[in-house]
């Protein structure tokens, strides 16, 4: 059997060791342009390319680190769980693209002869390596480091490194990880000088006793040396312990002590964080306190370079996370680039470090032949566990090891768990795939719905068949390792999850799936930029846009979902003191939801606004509340100038000074309170009908500033400006969550809506009636092939300047599902370029994604109202809108006021065009701006991989009445 198909982890590699960013031992990067040749098969026995004198002049250049399929050699492929090759472990098809790489390099001046290591941080999926014509060995484990001893082979000039990389190997069966399959040398390749007496490996043990405030440090090292920590006055021999008062490390207060490890041959800078992680009293605790994960799952991804990402992208990810109140990362589904963990130590995030292991594709065959339950594969599994733990063991941010993801159960996982516990008993173990939790210290689930989370929180979950296993699991802390699937528009229901985490001590939060959309940057033939997903590269097997399910878009622009998450999980809650029934009016209640930090790092500011106009603002003095504490703080007297308008207090918590992740003034949390008294009008002044409908020329009926089609009753002109509509509208371009995942239990709302025919509703006019002060149009709106219908009556009245439309809706028939929307759609002139509104904003919101919608006065171009989801779908609604204006550049336009407040969206294409588009470049502006004024919307949920819309956010077909007032802007 060829080496790339055998189940062994490799040959010739050095034992794994701890990673460190720098030392005084020399190292050199081998990045750059390598020579490259692609073969369609792995069955090429010719290794002559590894000879130093081989002529590679007709080969291509290839950027390393990188993926050859992103450089024009072959094509990427995306699958979620299915293997893109026949499942016959450990064998592979003959069609196994194989990339031969060559790189010639000189040693830098002054490089001393002696031991040296050639290090690969990541190669997908199997590499065979030669240096100067001598074979070093081969390895598998794509997201793990491998090193070879090469000192005896190096020469001053023209060293030739040759690497053969196979896209598929036996290791591919262990790496079915819901991402693009991207072969290549995609992480750092470096040469490390190892002088006599250099560090072979070291293990930093830095625990913290919260009862005494003292930390204990011990650094094990081979060979022996000394460790100094100047700030603590420590100078210790390796292997020696010292206990001293320290400031502990947490994700909220990431205090690191600079230290140095010295051996006879090397000096290594260390950054030491003191902390202790334990599962006790049924809770996961750090430094004696329960923690709450406000986490995300993070794949490594760049839209141009795939998994070949640099330190700038890593830091950008973490800064975005910290600025959006994310406090934890699960490294799905493999260890990240090691520099990422250095940044987590520095900036402060809890990390669940996951092994490079997933065998999800075996589930479809009932887990038959699953490698994790086959003893022949156990050495490969243990090798992966060792390489992760040894590499990452010195990071205080890593508080749990994860055995892997979606591998079912088996003896191999138990062997991994036993080795991890023996090597590092200081960290609990995580694994979701075993309901019995035999090898884990936490009970972990994916996509449990709210009701199930509540039952688990009460420790009332469905029992296991084995009473002893059930009792053990019931005593474990609980987390959602994946929840709130952030695919397309969504996720909905975040607020309800967060309340459960805060209500039930056992429920310690979770990790949203996932951080980033994996859309690959592409251009159309016309040069237009879009992001590609599964199927866009001609794959015979793919899972479409399921790869685009992140809180940030491929270019790392935050999505509305990330803004919602930031608001929902904010570590300070700000609300009206009298909301709980025992507070004082005119006061704000502030609660510190941090686990460790008080509020001394924050400043609080208030503002008083009347319909978006700031009348006064100032600082709000607050005591430095301890974690979990609350304070009721009086607001200042209401300022003058309200003049009967709706008024609100806004209280903001901002950074008081610069931090490593945010500048002073960065907003961490906010809340809004109604001013007292709080009369709320949604129209500027009531419309008193004073106009009488009359016949005009050209089959028109005239009423106030409006002209209507006398046959259909549809408004055609408003003060001479041509309009299309408004008419009742119930359709929306289904979101990914409306579509649902094929494997999810129903109902799938989009399929129901299409089966009924909500995307092809027909309008029948039953009567157009002119009264003394109103025009009444009675219609029936229904799809073909069913008796389901909506009766819609439009009652128009007017004064000299304005039109008022009151809509009454009555459902007929037994509606089997909720409606997508209920409201009005109208077409405006394309010259309407700018929207201005008073209501929720600035970003989009839906019934179950509206926590981040802040009431205010907002203005933006129509184009900016759109959310550019990788696969186009319903987007861009604004919540709780009192009025909206659409205007041309000269200020003329249309104003709509709601009775009651409404949802609005405006776009340059119809819902039908939005539904038909596969990519953003398919959307072409037309000759209308389509304005939606919605009385109600169906929620979003997360049924793309999780629970659907909660009952309170479903739009049931029921009688409804609402009104809008339209008048021109001139």
Structure report:
The chain has 970 residues and is mainly beta. 11% of the residues lie in helices and 37% in strands. The chain has eleven helices and 61 strands. The strands form 14 sheets. Strands 50, 51, 52, 53, 54, 55, 56, 57, 58, 59, 60 and 61 form a twelve-stranded antiparallel beta sheet that branches. α1 (311-323) runs parallel beside α2, α3 packs parallel to α4 (411-423) and α5 packs parallel to α7 (494-503). The longest helix is centred in the middle third of the chain and has 15 residues, at 378-392. The chain is globular and about 100 Å long. The termini are far apart.
Calculate Rg over CA atoms.
Answer: 31 Å
Number of strands: 61
**How confident overall, as mean pLDDT?**
96
Q: How much strand content do the residues show?
A: 35-45%
Biggest pleated-sheet summary: 12 strands, antiparallel
Q: Uncertain spans, ≥5 residues at pLDDT below 50?
A: none
Q: How many helical elements?
A: 11
The amount of helix comes to 10-25%
**Pairing-aware structural class of the strands and helices?**
mainly beta
